[in-house]
């Protein structure tokens, strides 16, 4: 998070379209049709932005393994020259996400890979994304979106934002989430089911257990539900894979039925091989991008920390931290800084809307925990009534500043006052204490139990539940001696 990279709103909008899915529009090219030159060019142009937006591409043996499995499954898509045409990337991102764009570019995050429990599940997820490419879902969504306004399509990405569908609302919404990992549009349910079916077909053809698609969807649904409980939310809807690939829980039975209808029996899972290959993969936040620990966000490299309000949860993106709650949303990020906080706050407001100028009523100076700070608010009319937009900025160096951009119902800015006042520097010792979590694959011993293994998980809460979800175990399933299982541990 907060790497020194700034993406223009127009580029973000175009990228959102490239990632999108749709209710079908136009003719679907045959799956055997090779990836066209225009599709390859479209993907090649978006690919570097996506890598930057989702933490960058990982390298090394784990990335090579994911690429190998992805290319092997792509061959079964029927797309001409698939092995050479597809680009498979393992992303250094702490969210459960996988997606595809035209031109044969498919992606999965290390977090989603860590949630999987065998190679068949990895092949299923990558096969699902290959299916989106083969069915040209993104192009169909793009064609439909272009029939509307580009702005309208970009505005549609937002989930639960307080603003309505007015032009200014869409612009502010786009601004508050710019640079976060929420910039994706939903595929339609019919497209998701079609991609599931194609992924299952590819699993069959490759000799994998076709039930793996259902099991990975089940793990994802359980993880979403666990995250909701841990974060104190009332539902399991969060802006991760469940947003770009809606409702994994309801798709589990459909995937199982499709696998059974295929008539395939058995098939390999390559569980132990998979677990051996992902051993040591980073789990959760990468300290180089900052880490979320409960209500705390700590960035050891930038030497800063803040505390989210009670009842809010955070999503840590590559370039921003998004803070979500019932009474508002905020984003913590950075912008170019020339040494004047007043100008900095004004510049953030000026980038929010292309349709009408938004200016703060005034800009106030203050000091927060020794940091020079400035803030301003503006009241804006939106489709759902009036809202307050607040920018609160902090100077950390003569050439470096950060800010919160918050949206609340009119009069509700105080929901974030505690957070605004919590921004602080951290010292070298506090920075050194931020140790990454990694997956540690262990073999169950004769005296091990779920409780004893779960107690080794690097969390202070919900250890048993986390262990079960991580290992794809239902509440009634046990473990046996000699079985490989995953733990999440701290490792320097």
**Count of domains:** 3
Q: What's the story with the biggest beta sheet?
A: 7 strands, antiparallel
Tell me the strand order in the biggest sheet: 8-9-10-14-13-12-11
How helix-rich are the residues, as a percent range?
Answer: 25-40%
Describe the structure.
The protein is α+β, with helices and mostly antiparallel strands. The chain has 3 domains: 9-280, no CATH class; 287-432, 3-Layer(aba) Sandwich (Protein Transport Mog1p, Chain A), CATH 3.40.1000; 437-490, Roll (Membrane-bound Lytic Murein Transglycosylase D, Chain A). 39% of the residues lie in helices and 20% in strands. The protein is built from 19 helices and 17 strands. The chain has helices at residues 9-18, 37-53, 61-74, 82-85, 110-115, 119-134, 137-147, 150-155, 167-177, 189-206, 212-230, 241-244, 248-261, 271-278, 341-350, 417-420, 428-432, 450-454, 463-470; strands spanning 87-91, 98-101, 105-109, 282-283, 291-293, 296-299, 304-307, 313-316, 321-325, 328-334, 364-368, 371-382, 385-397, 400-409, 424-425, 437-443, 484-490. Strands 8-9-10-14-13-12-11 form a 7-stranded antiparallel beta sheet. Strands 5-6-7-15 form a 4-stranded antiparallel beta sheet. It has a 3-stranded mixed beta sheet with strand order 1-3-2, sandwiched between helices. Helix 3 (61-74) crosses helix 6 (119-134), helix 6 crosses helix 10 and helix 11 (212-230) packs antiparallel against helix 19. The chain starts with 8 loop residues before the first helix and ends with a strand. Its cofactor is Zn(2+). Pfam families: LysM, Peptidase_M48.
């Amino acid at each position: 998070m907060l790497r020194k990279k700034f993406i223009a709103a127009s580029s973000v909008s175009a990228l959102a379209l490239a990632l999108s899915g749709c209710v079908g529009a136009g003719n679907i090219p045959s799956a055997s049709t090779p990836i066209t030159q225009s599709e390859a060019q479209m993907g090649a142009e978006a690919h570097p932005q996506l890598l930057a937006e989702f933490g960058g591409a990982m390298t090394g043996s784990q990335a090579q393994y994911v690429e190998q499995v992805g290319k092997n499954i792509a061959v079964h898509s029927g797309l001409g020259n698939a092995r050479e045409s597809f680009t498979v990337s393992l992303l250094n991102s702490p969210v459960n996400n996988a997606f595809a764009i035209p031109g044969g570019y498919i992606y999965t995050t290390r977090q989603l890979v860590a949630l999987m429990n065998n190679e068949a599940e990895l092949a299923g997820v990558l096969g699902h994304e290959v299916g989106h490419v083969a069915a040209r879902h993104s192009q169909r969504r793009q064609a439909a979106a272009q029939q509307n306004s580009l702005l309208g399509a970009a505005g549609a990405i937002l989930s639960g934002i307080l603003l309505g569908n007015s032009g200014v609302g869409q612009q502010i919404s786009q601004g508050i989430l710019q640079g976060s990992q929420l910039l994706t549009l939903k595929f339609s349910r019919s497209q998701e089911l079609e991609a599931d079916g194609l992924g299952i077909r590819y699993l069959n053809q490759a000799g994998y257990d076709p039930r793996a698609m259902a099991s990975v969807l089940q793990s994802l649904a359980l993880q979403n539900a666990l995250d909701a409980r841990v974060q104190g939310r009332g539902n399991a809807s969060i802006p991760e894979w469940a947003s770009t690939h809606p409702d994994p829980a309801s798709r589990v039975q459909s995937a199982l039925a499709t696998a059974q209808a295929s008539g395939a029996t058995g098939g390999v899972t390559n569980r132990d091989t998979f677990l051996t290959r992902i051993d040591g993969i980073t789990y959760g936040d990468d300290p180089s991008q900052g880490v979320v620990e409960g209500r705390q966000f700590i960035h050891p490299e930038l030497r800063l920390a803040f505390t989210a309000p009670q009842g809010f949860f955070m999503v840590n993106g590559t370039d921003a931290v998004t803070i979500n709650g019932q009474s508002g949303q905020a984003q913590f990020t950075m912008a170019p800084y020339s040494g004047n906080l007043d100008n900095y706050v004004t510049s953030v407001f000026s980038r929010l809307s292309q349709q009408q100028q938004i200016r703060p009523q005034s800009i106030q100076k203050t000091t927060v925990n020794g940091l020079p700070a400035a803030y301003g608010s503006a009241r804006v009319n939106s489709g759902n009534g009036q809202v307050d937009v607040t920018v609160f900025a902090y100077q950390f160096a003569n050439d470096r500043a950060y800010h919160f951009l918050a949206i609340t119902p009119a009069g509700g800015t105080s929901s974030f006052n505690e957070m605004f006042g919590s921004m602080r520097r951290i010292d070298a010792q506090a920075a050194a204490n931020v140790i990454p979590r990694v997956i540690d694959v262990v073999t169950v011993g004769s005296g091990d139990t779920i409780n004893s293994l779960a107690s080794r998980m690097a969390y202070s809460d919900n250890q048993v539940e986390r262990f079960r979800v991580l290992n794809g175990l239902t509440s009634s399933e046990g473990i046996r001696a000699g079985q490989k299982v995953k733990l999440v541990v701290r490792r320097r």
